[in-house]
Amino acid sequence: MTYDGLPTALRIRVVTRDAGSQEAWERGGRCRWCGRMGFVDVHHIDYRRGDRFDHEGNLISLCREHHGFVHGTPDHNPNPKRRTISKRVAQQVLNELIQTPGQTGAALWRIKLRAWEQEGRCEHGEFECMDCLNDPSRSADESLGRPG
């Protein structure tokens, strides 16, 4: 679903900021999750609840594939063999990503996953995550962030 309510000038500022180069801008933008150039959607990091959420600090450019992925639903996972991301974790990664030009969301998420694993946390950054504990495909150790 395309959101057309964003003011054009704001959309241009966000896509220009995230493109990182004139070439990327001319090709439609750059996805901040994967770094790929081409047409991008402008995604609200925090759920849009009125015009007050339409500002540069809450908007980021994502390709269509990763726009669906960061919504945290398995049916939008671009690679079903890989793990999905929760909306809460995606928001955390994307908020940090806005502050780090040149970094991709995928790389930042991998860094977080490694750190959480070393700390004994699950893939959602929690020590005891109900989503992981209730997942029948995981062992109890995996649900708590420990190798199975």
How would you concisely characterize the structure shown here?
This protein is mainly α and 148 residues long. It is built from seven helices and two strands.
Largest sheet: 2 strands, antiparallel
Question: How would you classify the helix and strand content by structural class?
Answer: mainly alpha
Number of strands: 2
Strand content: 5-15%
| Number of helical stretches of at least 4 residues | 7
Low-confidence stretches: 139-148
Spell the H/E element sequence: HHEEHHHHH
DSSP helix fraction: 25-40%
- The tally of domains stands at 1
As laid out across the biggest beta sheet, the strand order is: 1-2
Through-space gap between termini: 39 Å
Evaluate the radius of gyration.
Answer: 16 Å
Shape: elongated
Provide the residue-averaged pLDDT. 80
Structural description of this entry:
With 148 residues, the protein is mainly alpha-helical. It has one domain (8-143). It is built from seven helices and two strands, in the order ααββααααα. It has a two-stranded antiparallel ribbon. The longest helix is centred in the last third of the chain and has 14 residues, at 105-118. The radius of gyration is 16 Å and the shape is elongated. The protein starts with 7 loop residues before the first helix and ends in a 5-residue tail after the last helix. 24% of the residues are buried.
